[in-house]
Design brief:
Blueprint lengths: L10 H10 L1 H21 L4 E9 L9 H24 L1 H11 L13 H8 L11 H14 E5 L5 E8 L2 H58 L1 H8 L3 H31 L3 H8 L2 H19 L5 H52 L4 H36 L5 E5 L12 H27 L5 H7 L3 E7 L13 H4 L4 H16 L8 E7 L6 H14 L4 E5 L7 H5 L7 H5 L10 E3 L6 E3 L10 H4 L2 H13 L2 E5 L8 H5 L5 E7 L5 H14 L5 E9 L18
Parallel strand pairs: 5-12, 6-10, 6-11, 7-9, 7-10, 11-12
Antiparallel strand pairs: 1-3, 1-4, 2-3, 8-9
Length: 706
């Protein structure tokens, strides 16, 4: 069986589908919009507030701005991404939750779920409420869902957004999260500086000990080799300088000891020890006065006016002692520093005096080595001390590398739900869904509406598209127009069907061809098509016979206006003699018609399988050119399946917009299974409601005689 060529898609056919299914599309749009309105009415509005944080990717330093510029060129992207991840971290989120006490709110804290509320309403026992870590995890999960941190394009700005049912809370949490991030950033920088300070302090102590060791080594060298050095240099000043150094060192040690004891006494408010260590007369006198007042206060009753006055005087004396002691300790500090400076100067003079004399090469080497070690130790000490002071200063003047450039404000409009967007999406979804349902109904569920669709559904030739026309009052069927209006559009449509049948089943000289006309279900124009097709053959000069083999519901006798005494069923059941009782000529053409009369009250498959029926068809083949058999529908009954093996071609009628595709496929499968292998199927679309592109030439159609 050859497959007919497919027709091209017609835009007007598609538009006609949309027009026919406009109600389905409208209902679909209405459903989608209704669901959208219900959602908008029930959805809890959410508000989103956003704070903008500017991040300096190089790090900011008040003490070394040039270092900031150098770092900015190499670490920008990596640093920015790192800071964004810090803003998203759970530890920072927990700090913000704790600072804002979100865990106490119903929105983010512990609250009853809808299931628990339902259980509570009907009096069921509720599960144990979450405690401790479960509360923290639940709050943290809700916080992370509400928090959004995004970098703004390629800028150094990071948007910190928070969504909440309360617009004020949304702004407060967004700002709190940004401030918490900046505070932690600053604390981290201070802690790093202090950690570096502690490390340098330990190294500074080692450098100080190394410096003291090198200074002591030179002094020991001079003391142990003074006689040799004096003999080699010939200078008496060396001994004098050495004696001065010894006195200065002893005095410095003594003052340092007094300084340490005095400072400890001052911090412990041990005024007697403080006065004795410092040895200042004024301070000693004040200490004695304090002792007298203390004894007087001890003899007075507590709370009396005199005791209060004495206590005030005692406090004033202690303040004066503290002030004088602090001044004296400062003077001791200055004295210690002075003796250290004097010691250093004497050491330098001694070195100069020794090196200026005529020393031996060995001595010069030994002295130079000790001198270099002392200088190196001094430089190391000075460098570490300077760096320690810088780090201590940095710890005091640290600033954050980020700042809030725009604080979040309580939003006036909710960010969720977006009414315009949801309604627009619902509208487009309704339109798209409606069109999809329309085409699905047309091409998969609903009826056949075009020749293109029919050709796509079945691998069979589409013989013709029969337009829908109103039936005049004086006509019983549109098949009458084949005779009454031979130049009409519908007459030409049936002639086109006849041409398609002739192509599918060419004439065989000396043997008539049998054409069965069938349909999937009743009321698809099968009997009308059979009569009209038979009349076109008769009008073309063919000896044609129309057999009404729809034994369940015969109708051809009513179409031609004849009331026979018997029908073909009676003949097949051998209830009449001869064929005159059910055979008559078409009053409008030269067509012969074997008619039915009554509906069968017994199964009709057996008469159609009988030898009588087969002999009838065989005899008709030998005497006529064309035999057209009007059969029963394929889906409800099996009659047509027993007629199909006798046919050379089958015309399958399809009612426009009525025949279901599932029924059409079922009937086609049944028909092809029953036909001979060399027989073809030609389909016809009846009652077409549009205008086919092949029938747009109105000037070629008209009534006879015009």
């Amino acid at each position: 069986m050859t497959t007919p060529p497919r027709e091209t898609i017609d835009i007007k056919d598609l538009l006609s589908i949309l027009q026919r299914q406009a109600r389905l599309i409208g209902v679909t749009i209405f459903v989608f919009l209704t669901l959208a309105f219900l959602f908008l009415a029930s959805a809890v509005p959410l508000y989103t507030a956003t704070a903008l944080v500017e991040v300096d990717p190089a790090g900011r330093s008040l003490l070394d701005p040039q270092d900031t510029q150098r770092a900015a060129a190499t670490m920008a992207d990596a640093r920015l991404e790192s800071e964004v991840e810090k803003l998203r971290s759970s530890s920072l989120a927990l700090d913000t939750i704790r600072d804002t006490e979100l865990y106490l709110t119903e929105e983010f804290g512990v609250s009853l779920s809808l299931t628990d509320r339902a259980k509570q309403a009907i009096g069921l026992e509720l599960p144990e409420p979450p405690m401790g870590l479960q509360v923290v995890q639940a709050t943290l999960g809700r916080f992370n869902d509400a928090m959004s941190v995004r970098r703004r394009g390629l800028t150094y700005l990071v948007a910190v957004s928070f969504t909440s049912e309360n617009p004020t809370r949304a702004a407060e949490v967004a700002n709190a999260h940004a401030q918490t991030y900046i505070r932690r950033q600053l604390d981290a920088k201070v802690q790093d500086a202090l950690a570096g300070r502690d490390i340098l302090r330990a190294q500074l102590d080692l450098a100080q000990a190394q410096l003291a060791a090198t200074d002591g080594a030179f002094s020991d060298y001079v003391n142990h080799n003074l006689d040799r050095l004096m003999a080699e240099s010939g200078s008496v000043a060396v001994e004098n300088l050495r004696d001065q150094m010894t006195v200065a060192a002893a005095t410095r040690v003594e003052l340092l000891q007094s300084q340490t004891l005095a400072r400890a006494a001052l911090e412990a408010s041990d005024f007697d020890t403080l006065a004795n260590e410092i040895g200042d007369a004024t301070l000693i006198a004040l200490t004695e006065q304090r002792s007298v007042l203390a004894r007087q206060i001890a003899g007075k009753a507590e709370g009396t006016a005199e005791a209060i006055d004495l206590a005030a005087g005692l406090a004033d004396l202690e303040a004066r002692i503290v002030t004088g002691g602090a001044r004296a300790v400062s003077q001791l500090d200055a004295s210690v520093t002075g003796y250290e400076t004097a010691e250093s100067d004497l050491r330098a003079q001694l070195q100069t005096e020794l090196l200026s004399g005529p020393l031996s090469p060995q001595t010069l080497t030994e002295v130079y080595s000790l001198q270099q070690e002392a200088q190196i130790a001094q430089r190391q000490y000075d460098t570490m001390l300077l760096r320690l002071r810088e780090i201590e200063t940095q710890a005091l003047v640290q600033i954050a590398d980020s700042r809030v450039v725009s604080e979040a404000l309580p939003p006036r409009q909710p960010s969720y739900p977006n009414k315009k967007l949801i309604l627009a999406l619902a509208l487009f979804a309704g339109i798209g869904g409606g069109i999809t349902l329309a085409f699905a109904y047309e091409y998969f569920v609903g009826g056949v509406t075009s020749a293109i669709q029919l050709g796509n559904l079945l691998p069979a030739r589409v013989g013709a598209v029969i337009p829908r026309e109103a039936l005049p009052a004086d006509q019983k069927t549109v098949a009458d127009k084949i005779v009454n209006e031979p130049m009409s559009l519908i007459a030409e449509s049936f002639r086109r069907l006849r041409a398609a049948v002739d192509r599918a089943c060419p004439d065989d000289p000396g043997k008539g061809k049998v054409i069965m006309v069938c349909s999937s279900v009743p009321a698809e124009g099968k009997s009308t098509t059979a009569l009209a097709l038979a009349r076109t053959y008769a009008a073309a000069g063919k000896k044609t016979l129309l057999i009404d083999a729809d034994l369940r519901n015969p109708s051809q006798h009513s179409f031609i206006g004849c009331e026979p005494k018997h029908g073909i069923l009676d003949y097949l059941l051998d209830e009449v003699d001869g064929d005159e009782a059910f055979y008559d000529a078409d009053p409008k053409s030269s067509l012969g018609v074997m008619m039915g009369r009554r509906r069968s009250m017994v199964p009709t498959d057996a008469p159609l399988q009988s030898t009588t029926f087969r002999d009838l068809i065989s005899n008709a083949r030998g005497a006529l050119d064309v035999i057209i058999i009007d059969t029963a529908p394929l889906v409800p009954v099996v009659d047509a399946r027993y007629i199909a093996p006798l046919a050379d071609c089958a015309v399958l009628c399809v009612r426009h917009g009525i025949t279901k595709q599932s029924e059409l496929r079922t009937s086609f499968d049944q028909l092809t299974d029953s036909l001979r292998s060399d027989a073809e199927v030609v389909t016809v679309l009846n009652c077409y409601e549009g205008r086919d592109k092949t029938y747009r030439y109105d000037g070629y159609y008209g009534y006879a005689g015009k």
